[in-house]
Specification:
6 strands, single chain, 11% strand, four-stranded mixed beta sheet
């Protein structure tokens, strides 16, 4: 006699409890297939809100990136403007020096005696008791400066002897006054070079950190001189 074939029970994902009575595994919740119109509207609203939040976050991220790019561009622009302003100051300062040299040169050609007579007047008390004063000057100005020094000395009450002597190493306007116990001198070329070096040193120390060409107060007030 043959025994009937065993019947296989279809496995079902039911809740399984362990020996202690706790849930060892549970079937996944059944997926709802039918929704009421109110539920559909709630799901749609929730999905829309989630999408809107995602769009806002994305927009904020893009805005932050754009602000970073703008900040970098502004920094580069300000650095360029500072360099341009510094170059403008340097060129203006050197142009002013060049103009000053031209004016000083023309003045010395017209009044070559002015520097040495001014020095003589400034040293009045220091040399008033000296018996002799030697003035070294440019050779072609020897006679002219001799007369100018004698006139100045007479006006000062200086009674010592004054002698102007030509010196080929001295340019126009330069002089050396020697009275035995001391001496003084002036060289317009060397003086101009010292002024130029001082201006260059000031510009180098200032660098790119100087005050702006147009102040913030002028910008805020709309200064008509800076349009």
């Amino acid at each position: 006699m043959t025994s009937p074939a065993p019947t296989h029970r279809k496995f079902s994902f039911d809740t399984v409890f362990d020996a202690g009575g706790d849930v060892a595994s549970a079937p996944p919740p059944a997926r709802k297939k039918l929704f009421h119109p109110e539920e559909v509207e709630e799901i749609r609203a929730a999905a829309y809100a989630e999408g809107e939040r995602s769009a806002v976050v994305l927009a904020e991220q893009e805005a932050a990136q754009a602000m970073g790019v703008l900040a970098q561009a502004a920094h580069a622009a300000l650095s360029s403007l500072a360099a341009v302003a510094h170059e403008h100051r340097s060129q203006s300062a050197h142009l002013a020096l060049a103009a000053a040299r031209k004016i000083a040169g023309a003045a010395l050609e017209q009044f070559p005696e002015a520097p040495v007579t001014a020095a003589l007047e400034a040293m009045g008390r220091e040399i008033e008791a000296e018996p002799r004063l030697l003035a070294r000057v440019a050779p072609h100005l020897e006679a002219r400066l001799q007369a100018a020094l004698e006139t100045t000395a007479a006006a000062m009450g200086f009674s010592g002897q004054i002698t102007a002597r030509g010196d080929a190493d001295l340019p126009l306007g330069a002089f050396i006054l020697d009275w035995g116990d001391g001496r003084c001198g002036f060289d317009p070329v060397a003086a101009a070079e010292r002024v130029s070096q001082a201006v260059d040193a000031a510009l180098a120390a200032e660098g790119l950190h100087a005050e702006p060409l147009i102040s913030q107060a002028e910008i805020a007030q709309g200064d008509p001189d800076h349009v």
